[in-house]
Amino acid sequence: MSEADTVTEVVGTGIPVRGNDIDTDQIIPARFLKALTFERLGDQVFYDQRFEDDGTQKDHPFNAPRYQNASILVVNANFGCGSSREHAPQALMRWGIDAIVGESFAEIFAGNCLALGIPTVEMDHEQAAALQDFIEANPTAEIEVDIAGERVRYDDMIVGAEVDEGQRKALVDGIWDTTALLRSNEAEVRATAETLPYIDG
After folding, report:
1. DSSP designation for 66
2. Of residues 129, 118, 131, 130, the one with CA closest to residue 163
3. Rounded distance, CA 166 to CA 155, Å?
4. How confident is the model at residue 187 (pLDDT cuts 50, 70, 90)?
């Protein structure tokens, strides 16, 4: 079977968002879910945490100029809890996030991230806090998230991390993108469909 793109590592600069139990309504408020496409969700990520009612910017990492090219989000415990909206990882991805490192993730949120090829990598509280501190002091420093090897490298540190085994296998083996798999195996899909009694023509 042909494979989709593999995701073995993500390299980039980081952006820290501190706090436990940051839910999907904080990541993308419900009023933005009525959009017909996901295209503008990047502009609306963390909207209520980033802007006053009159549109004035608040002090939030996603507004800070030093983090505008970041691709690795570093969070704390139970990130992505709450409702199971797929818009939350879509908004983060469209802002520019390619990987999320944190203490723990809501299961459905992590699954929705996997469907986009975004790894959710776990480390303990002290390690996550140390990485957030490092990023705040060194916003242009390169961070390497090694999904295959389950570790995070930054500065002179190599920190062990955990990736759910099913997620790790899907990303590393290139089987996370089911749409790409179907497209790249069209002949096999068509042959299977022709054997099904409930498919006409």
Report:
1. G
2. 118
3. 29
4. low
**Three-state secondary-structure class, residue 156:** coil
Instruction: Kindly tell me if the per-residue pLDDT of 182 is higher than 60.
Output: no
- CA 158 – CA 170 distance, rounded (Å): 24
Please give the Cα distance from 2 to 180 (Å, whole number): 9
**Total residue count of the chain as it appears in this document:** 201
The residue among 73, 161, 79 whose CA lies nearest residue 121 is 161
The pTM score is 0.86
Each residue of 54-71: pLDDT tens digit?
Answer: 999 999 999 999 999 999
Q: Are strands 143-146 and 9-12 parallel, antiparallel or unpaired?
A: antiparallel
Supply the mean pLDDT for the chain. Answer: 89
Q: Give kind and range of the element (H or E) at residue 99.
A: strand 99-102
- pLDDT at residue number 31: 87
Q: What value does the mean pLDDT take over residues 36-58? A: 91
Select from 79, 120, 85, 117 the least CA-distant residue to 100: 120
What is the maximum span of the chain, computed from C-alpha positions, in angstroms?
62
Is the CB of residue 124 less than 8 Å from the CB of residue 103?
yes
Reading the block at residue 66, the tokens are: 């030093």
Q: What are 73's strand-pairing partners?
A: 15, 100
Has domain 9-176 been given CATH number 3.20.19.10?
A: yes
